[in-house]
Q: What sequence folds into this?
């Protein structure tokens, strides 16, 4: 086989047409195309599927249109807590992280967990410490925070909480 | 939630998922995305899958691994398997979607919510993206 395929999804946190402003719609489409381009470039260069999925997800993590990395939603306590996972179908090696707060690209931290090989899922402050030990790019928590996401949190808290929160996942 | 699945020129598959979770999540809530088998799974003998949606339902359905099992043992194609699992998730009260691809390049998506942003690119073809379409 000499051909490859890349498929992506990118959630904005809005579930209804009409709620999404036109500029956000256009930005989301542009972000998806950029992610496909990044992953496709890796595959065109002979890279692995693993390289491609990491490259594509990193683009969407950096793009504020999506609920991951920069642009992630807020927790009840007003923090951006990030989760990610990656898995290699060849060996079924896998790595995952949850509730990290300072790693710019959580998917790359998940890959470091996988490549380290001792564990599959690290969480919280320990995962942040592992990230620093592995030399991944660190950012201040404010890097992830956007005003629109804060507004969504405020709206949900004003409405009483969890049920209405399903709009923004 | 964002995610990607791919099959490379050697026929190997991989999956990745990344998310901020659910707005106003409390008590250390974790969804399906970082749980291997629930929100993310890859197996060259079946397919690679990344999920987005009602995390608690995807966890209970072990969605990504269930799709792989339907491909490996049930002999379904990845997209048909994905459709079956999304239908089951809907019956459990869940909403969301998955992307999936097999080692032979067969792939696509299944979802039961109108707003899943998605895209696909195959070698030698133009990219296709869709929102609500």
A:
């Amino acid at each position: 086989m000499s051909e490859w395929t890349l498929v992506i999804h990118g959630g904005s946190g809005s579930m209804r047409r009409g709620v999404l402003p036109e500029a956000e719609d256009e930005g989301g489409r542009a972000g998806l195309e950029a992610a496909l381009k990044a992953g496709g470039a890796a595959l065109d260069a002979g890279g692995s599927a693993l390289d491609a999925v990491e490259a594509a997800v990193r683009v969407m993590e950096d793009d504020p249109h999506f609920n991951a990395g920069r642009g992630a939603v807020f927790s009840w306590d007003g923090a951006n807590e990030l989760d990610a996972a990656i898995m290699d179908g060849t060996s079924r090696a896998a790595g995952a992280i949850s509730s990290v707060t300072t790693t710019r690209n959580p998917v790359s931290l998940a890959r470091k967990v996988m490549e380290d090989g001792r564990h599959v899922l690290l969480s919280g402050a320990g995962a942040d410490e592992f990230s620093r030990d592995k030399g991944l790019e660190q950012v201040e928590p404010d890097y992830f925070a956007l005003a629109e996401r804060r507004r969504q949190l405020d709206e949900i808290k004003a409405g009483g909480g969890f049920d209405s929160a399903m709009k923004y996942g | 939630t964002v995610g990607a699945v791919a099959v490379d020129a050697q026929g190997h598959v991989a999956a990745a998922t990344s998310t901020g979770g659910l707005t106003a999540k409390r008590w250390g809530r974790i969804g399906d995305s970082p749980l291997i088998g629930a929100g993310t799974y890859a197996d060259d003998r079946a397919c690679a899958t990344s999920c987005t949606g009602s995390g608690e339902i995807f966890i209970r359905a072990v969605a990504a691994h269930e799709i792989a099992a339907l491909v490996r043992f049930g002999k379904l194609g990845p997209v048909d398997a994905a459709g079956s699992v999304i239908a089951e998730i809907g019956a459990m009260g869940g909403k969301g979607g998955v992307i999936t691809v097999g080692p032979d390049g067969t792939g696509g998506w299944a979802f039961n919510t109108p707003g899943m942003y998605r895209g696909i690119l195959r070698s030698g073809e133009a990219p296709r993206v869709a929102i609500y379409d």
